[in-house]
Amino acid sequence: MRIHVICLLVVSLFSSAFSDSYLLPRPLVLQYPSEIVTRPKKSDEDVINLHCTSWRFAAETNNLSPWKTIPEECADYVKDYVLGKGYVTDLERVSEEASMFASSVEFAGDGKDIWIFDIDETLLSNLPYYIDHGFGLEVFHHSEFDKWVERGVAPAIAPSLKLYQRVVDLGYKVFLLTGRKESHRLITVENLINAGFQNWDKLILRSPDEQHKMATLYKSEKRDEMVKEGYRIRGNSGDQWSDLLGSSMSQRSFKLANPMYYIP
Amino acid sequence: MRIHVICLLVVSLFSSAFSDSYLLPRPLVLQYPSEIVTRPKKSDEDVINLHCTSWRFAAETNNLSPWKTIPEECADYVKDYVLGKGYVTDLERVSEEASMFASSVEFAGDGKDIWIFDIDETLLSNLPYYIDHGFGLEVFHHSEFDKWVERGVAPAIAPSLKLYQRVVDLGYKVFLLTGRKESHRLITVENLINAGFQNWDKLILRSPDEQHKMATLYKSEKRDEMVKEGYRIRGNSGDQWSDLLGSSMSQRSFKLANPMYYIP
């Protein structure tokens, strides 16, 4: 009986390898642990959990096509993740990994080693906004979000603030590269300072003629300029792959979790 | 009472934003769902699960420093993931996402549109080997693994076989780009064919002088050559970021899950 259940599990993963036309030279000897056989049947909640965890992995690894909202069936899952321990655990880990790398870089001492930070969902959290807007279930609403930004009350992501201070203390130049628009410069500076961020070297926002550029292109062009000016981009922290991929990529990139929205 | 518990949760995420020195202009109005307050205390198993899921995310998003073994405390977690529904669900999703993208590309019809596949943990599964070697808990053992490769019995990853057939049917040229060595060409071809893979256009293995190159460099150089020959790399499927990152990157990259080992 035990053997039968094991075989079913194997076939679900490797079905094609065991069909008649692709018969393997000899049967695989699979030593499956016994607990798999005795595990209870999955509840509906387990099924949703599995499905939404898989969706979240696909989002975080950049495997999904551009998406505008989170899957409806994952609304509670995303809410539980961002308000529970999962999100903060992930944020702490990426901060620690980045900090370890930052400490390991050997500096030339010429002031040309830089670290790039994105702002939204990287240094500042818009979670208070998303709590009121379905955690990504609602389609992004520019003017509503602008109103939130203009209040200037987005709190710091604590693990990112810790990394930020470490990076500044180590002697990196810090460049903030954000998709926010130039007209939000003052309120962004005020918000950053109130949230504890200080001593950055550049704050780069989108100029009016850059409004409709894809984020990947806009950020790549800004990184290209930095490289042209002789800077070495050692680290780059962002919650979107469009913060990290493209040209003039950083020596190491750090992807912060964000299961609520996607920016191409 | 309810309010108190809510505050603690918020502070854990945004602690720095609420300390005296960084006082925000006004308190945030956080509307937290009631179920968070009534949720039971996490068991030890929940804590390990949270920790290891976070580790797996960090691995899959390329946030970790190079690692040689999985964390000891995550041994059971990784085993349960790869033998349970989690891994196969993730493999099916990446196959479907890649398939949708492959179908959406408009072809020039000149035979220059290609799809790159890695082999190990992308087309063929070495899970039968890793079942006998601690699912990544043991340090990688070259000669032991070579013996397994030389048996030529690695089964197909069924969702990848489905994608592969779709990509071939759509008219892409298929290039297999693997870190396996040239001396394993014959057994690799035999294994691939027995597992159901056919009609690839190139199978690129490491030549003896490429043995000690980092995978990212080796694979980038091979992609550079493809681009020089006029090929358009539309898709690239691999379980390692060293399959996907570097120069001449693919239009879209697809990261298959692999929590068992890391290749720089």
Automatic annotation (TrEMBL), chains A, B:
<keyword id="KW-0325">Glycoprotein</keyword>
<feature type="signal peptide">
    <location>
        <begin position="1"/>
        <end position="19"/>
    </location>
</feature>
<comment type="function">
    <text>May function as somatic storage protein during early seedling development.</text>
</comment>
<dbReference type="InterPro" id="IPR036412">
    <property type="entry name" value="HAD-like_sf"/>
</dbReference>
<dbReference type="InterPro" id="IPR005519">
    <property type="entry name" value="Acid_phosphat_B-like"/>
</dbReference>
<dbReference type="GO" id="GO:0003993">
    <property type="term" value="F:acid phosphatase activity"/>
</dbReference>
<protein>
    <submittedName>
        <fullName>Acid phosphatase</fullName>
    </submittedName>
</protein>
<dbReference type="Pfam" id="PF03767">
    <property type="entry name" value="Acid_phosphat_B"/>
</dbReference>
<dbReference type="InterPro" id="IPR023214">
    <property type="entry name" value="HAD_sf"/>
</dbReference>
<keyword id="KW-0732">Signal</keyword>
<keyword id="KW-0758">Storage protein</keyword>
<dbReference type="GO" id="GO:0045735">
    <property type="term" value="F:nutrient reservoir activity"/>
</dbReference>
<dbReference type="InterPro" id="IPR010028">
    <property type="entry name" value="Acid_phosphatase_pln"/>
</dbReference>
<comment type="similarity">
    <text>Belongs to the APS1/VSP family.</text>
</comment>
<dbReference type="InterPro" id="IPR014403">
    <property type="entry name" value="APS1/VSP"/>
</dbReference>
